[in-house]
Amino acid sequence: MTEPVLSLSGVTRSFGALKVSDAVDLDLRAGEIHALIGPNGAGKSTLIKLISGEIEPDAGRIRFAGRDLQGLDQAARARLGLARTFQVSSLIPDFSVRRNVMLAVQAREGSGFGFVRQVSGDSRLGDAAMTALGRVGLQDRAQVPAAELSHGERRLLEIAMALALRPRAFLMDEPMAGLGSEGSGALIGFLDSLRGEAPILLVEHDMDAVFALADRISVLVGGRVIAHGSPDDIRADADVRAAYLGEE
Amino acid sequence: MTFALFTEQILNGLQLGVMLFLMAAGLTLIFGVMGLINLAHGSLFMVGGFVCAAVAVWSGSFWLGLAASLVASAAAGALVEIAVIRRLYDRDHLDQVLATFALVLMFSEATRFVFGSSPLYLNPPAMLSGPVMLPGGIAYPAYRLAIIVAGLLVAGGLGLLINRTRLGVRIRAGEADREMISALGIDIRTLYTIVFALGAALAGFAGALVGAIQSVEVGMGEPVLILAFVVIVIGGIGSIRGALIASVIVGVVDTMGRFLLPDLLSGMMDAASARGTGAAIASMLIYVLMALVLIVKPRGLFPAHG
Amino acid sequence: MAEFLNERRMSLAIALALLAVPLMAEWLGNSFYTTLATRAAILALAGVGLNIALGSGGLISLGHAAFFGIGGYAVGIIASHHQAYEPLMTWPLTIAATNQMPVLWLVAILASGLAALMIGALSLRTSGVYFIMITLAFAQMIYYFAVSWPAYGGQDGLSIYVRDGFPGLNTLRPLDFFLLCYAVLMVVLALVRMISGARFGAMLEAVRQNPARVAALGLSPFRIRLVAFVLSGMVTGLAGALYADLNRFVSPSMLSWHMSGEIMVFVILGGAGRLFGPVAGACIYVLFEHVFGGVSDYWQFFLGALLLGVVLFARGGLIGLAAGRARHD
């Protein structure tokens, strides 16, 4: 069996006396969508932060694309091919939609340090950006400042920026949050097609989306993985029903 | 070098440290509670120095001058807070820097207009004008010793005020969470004015005390202000305890550097260049210390939050 | 877009006015105003430097006097060797002093860039109010060093007896020197404009607005800010070099924190983050100093009042008042 794209072993992190991640083992394999679910405060977002490098674990290892991530900052991890979308959309508000994605293309090419060639006339950046926007259906909004987008459009722009990075894996923190049922339906279809391009670690509250998309599901409660398996396993798991799905 | 000389320099360092603490405590309190960076804090120091000197000369009493300087700097602080500063709490740091820089210009020019450009001189009170004999036969100026004692008393009093009184509870609440303090039904505007005036009084007190050691002149507060910033960076912002420890460290390192370096270097070069080089390096010492702290602990030695 | 065009038109008007004043003055035979305009152009250049860090990068440096002064001292020190017919150093190799501005500028740019690299690498580890205090403190360190280092004048500063030369110009003539400074200012403005439109400019702007996003894209905000800070220090250092030759004198006052504050004032009076903001700001400052300085000894009181008014009531600076809100505010 080939090595998973991303693997966590024994990852632990405390804030004061509170263990927000408790010896978490988790992996993400090529071609899959692995959903991470759990009640609020279970430590899902903390895990995303640990993987993306925003915070460091107290113990445990995180491997990605064949390397240990310890000591690498966020930017270095992103350069290795880890693309993150934020729970609360994180955009460059004064840039147009297209310029936001151009920034991602520029970052993928590893060049923040061009001093002469003007970005506005750089058709390669612009074309790549438009391609990514086309895939999420935002091409008609390309010239609008990101600050003026609707909530749903911002979520899509986040995903377009992640696409433009051509990553080896996606870390998506609640991409469905705040989308209407029509919007999330379309996004489910899109993410479904994305798994062949790069695997997705998906943190999500929308259970319809999770059960429609996930190849595997891990359930996080109180910082610990209490259950792990296929969607059918998880549906059947009594612990999960008791602890989380809230069914009597 | 004798033991007596060495002890004297240590005490001088302590005295500088205590002065810096009076400045840094106010700055860090104001930053901690209101989130404001105040460049005009040095101007309040200057106000204290000038008022003390002027009143002492006019009345013949240092103590009356000292009392007047406390009242004047607290009043100036409250006035400035009400007229300008409270408009800045919601602004970004850039606006705060610019507005308080503008206040520095206005304070300096106004003081020059009232008192003229030549420095004033202030004598220490008669009862403290001589030396005292310390154990070990060391003679040390009584006034400087009094400054150290006064500074430490103020530090203790400030600690009590913050930890033991209702005002202190409110100040700590304000540092922790600004929403909470309004939820507690505390009049936040008044609290802010009080905290600012308290910081101003501490600065004015320092200015008045220093006035009898140095000359009282326009711009006297600015080098002290910048040293107090160094103290805050080293001690960690928002922390009174950090400010106290860092003040003493900075005061002693600066004083001892100026005292020891020329001697240390005289082994390596002739006396004149040892003096010059030693003085130049000594003047940079505390900034090097600050750089080292930044490398090891970017949030200071005693970070107040997190 | 109308606002943007308006700003461009204003920039052009400012550039032309700054050029017209000395030409008129020379025509009328009064080179005092030429010197005044030269001063404005040089201070504007110092502000253009700070604006790279402050306006584009959002880095509130209260220590740019360090770079201004280092640029000035680079010129002053080399000139002091040159006028004493001494080499700059004899070991490990002999380097002769020069009085040619292109070489002096290069030295000033390198020296201030190196200082900015060191100060930036330390102070950019922090942010917010720490960054302000630390840049201020390091500049003060260099100030005290200059005051207490006896070899190059200490507190008294250094005189440059004859203004340094530039190939093909007589820099002793006020108009020649003005045109030289003006040309340098315009070239630097063109370069800044080019850089801000290029990939680096886009990244710097993005880092100012949302550093977490830039890190998530795989570029280090620290490095982008550091490069901006070094570029910023270099331009301000070049301004310091010109300022030394304008006054034919350098002293620790070029390094004082008041200077840092004033450079910031140029940027803010005109409008931070606008290409010509510092030019407008420096012109207003010099004009203000000339007019009010002639009326009152206490003119800085009124400068303070003006600054306070701009901060409290006109946040986009004066270009902002005239041309509308900045594109990014």
UniProtKB/TrEMBL annotation, chain A:
Ranges where the ABC transporter domain occurs: 6-247
Coiled coil spans: none
UniProtKB keywords: ATP-binding, Nucleotide-binding, Transport
Tagged with keyword ATP-binding: yes
Cellular component GO terms held in the UniProt record: plasma membrane
Gene Ontology molecular-function annotations: ATP binding; ATP hydrolysis activity
Entry superkingdom: Bacteria
Similarity comment: family membership: Belongs to the ABC transporter superfamily.
Protein name (Swiss-Prot/TrEMBL): Amino acid/amide ABC transporter ATP-binding protein 1 (HAAT family)
Annotated source species: Hoeflea marina
Automatic annotation (TrEMBL), chain B:
Residue stretches in coiled coil: none
GO cellular component annotations of the record: plasma membrane
Transmembrane domains' residue ranges: 16-37, 44-60, 66-85, 97-122, 142-162, 190-213, 225-253, 274-296
One Pfam entry name: BPD_transp_2
Xref: CDD domains: TM_PBP1_LivH_like (cd06582)
Superkingdom, natural source: Bacteria
UniProt keyword terms in alphabetical order: Amino-acid transport, Cell membrane, Membrane, Transmembrane, Transmembrane helix, Transport
Mode of membrane association: Multi-pass membrane protein
Compartments reported by the entry: Cell membrane
Keyword Chloroplast included in the entry's annotation: no
MF GO annotations: transmembrane transporter activity
Keyword ATP-binding: no
Matching InterPro entries: ABC_transp_permease, BCAA_transport_permease
Name the record gives this protein: Amino acid/amide ABC transporter membrane protein 1 (HAAT family)
Originating species: Hoeflea marina
Lineage: Bacteria, Pseudomonadati, Pseudomonadota, Alphaproteobacteria, Hyphomicrobiales
Automatic annotation (TrEMBL), chain C:
Compartments where found: Cell membrane
InterPro entries in the cross-refs: ABC_transp_permease, LivM-like
GO CC aspect terms: plasma membrane
GO-annotated molecular function: branched-chain amino acid transmembrane transporter activity
Electron transport found in the keyword field: no
Residue ranges of the TM segments: 35-54, 66-83, 103-122, 129-146, 177-201, 222-243, 263-288, 300-323
Record key words, sorted: Cell membrane, Membrane, Transmembrane, Transmembrane helix
Protein topology in the membrane: Multi-pass membrane protein
Pfam families referenced in this protein's UniProt entry, alphabetically: BPD_transp_2
Top-rank lineage group of the source organism: Bacteria
Protein name in UniProt: Amino acid/amide ABC transporter membrane protein 2 (HAAT family)
